[in-house]
């Protein structure tokens, strides 16, 4: 089924089709970048999002959560020397990943629009930026990715962790889409589109993990 609205929030293309419907939301897919997304009328308010995030049990002493984050932290620290400057973007109420990377010798800053909204950290340049379980929350992924690109030094790395769209059939029963704060869903093809558009080389070093290195 083809629709002409809404346009894609990543590439603004209007070649958009209805991808899936459930009782709560419609999901659309862009024919150009293959992003799957929900329309703005399905977004939660900032207060509703804040309440949902507080339900997540992502504490510093949660060993399971720390192990989960090592899926990104391990290949990242294996590929970068210690002493670099990093930004954990969208860190949530407990910046556990920043703590892990700081313990590995990285100089970490943190930012979250709800929990750590210090815009001063967005005026600096970084050797790498991590974005774990955050990109799927972006309401305007084009704008937010442009911001992240602008904060990266040449050859800097944007390290993303998010579950990826595999197929339309699997999407219908995918638990990840049921979180009401998840509004954008990315496939490997979408990350390749992002790499081409923003000047990255892209790799997939672990399950749900994407590294995109900025051109020199």
What does this structure look like?
This protein has 216 residues and is α/β, with parallel strands linked by helices. It has a single domain (58-214), classed as Vaccinia Virus protein VP39 (Rossmann fold), CATH 3.40.50. Helix content is 28%, strand content 26%. It contains 6 helices and 11 strands. It has a 6-stranded mixed sheet, sandwiched between helices. A 5-stranded antiparallel sheet has the order 1-2-3-4-9, with no helix packed on it. α2 (63-79) crosses α3 (96-103). The protein is globular.
Q: Mind sketching the topology for me?
A:
Elements: E1 2-3, E2 16-21, E3 26-30, E4 36-37, H1 46-54, H2 63-79, E5 85-89, H3 96-103, E6 107-111, E7 126-132, H4 141-151, E8 152-161, H5 168-171, E9 184-185, H6 188-198, E10 200-206, E11 209-214
Parallel strand pairs: 5-6, 5-7, 7-8
Antiparallel strand pairs: 1-2, 2-3, 3-4, 4-9, 8-11, 10-11
Summarize this entry quickly.
This protein has 216 residues and is α/β, with parallel strands linked by helices.
Observed structural traits:
globular, 6 helices, Rossmann fold, six-stranded mixed beta sheet, 11 strands
Look up the CATH topology. Rossmann fold
The total domain count is 1
Shape: globular
Largest sheet: 6 strands, mixed
Low-confidence stretches: none
Q: Percent of residues in helical segments?
A: 25-40%
Count of alpha and pi helical runs: 6
| Oligomeric state of the chains in view | single chain
Computed over alpha carbons, the radius of gyration is 17 Å
Mean pLDDT: 94
Q: Output the CATH class name.
A: Alpha Beta
Strand runs, count = 11
Distance between the termini: 42 Å
Assigned CATH superfamily:
Vaccinia Virus protein VP39
Report the sheet-strand fraction.
Answer: 25-35%
Q: What is the CATH architecture assignment? A: 3-Layer(aba) Sandwich
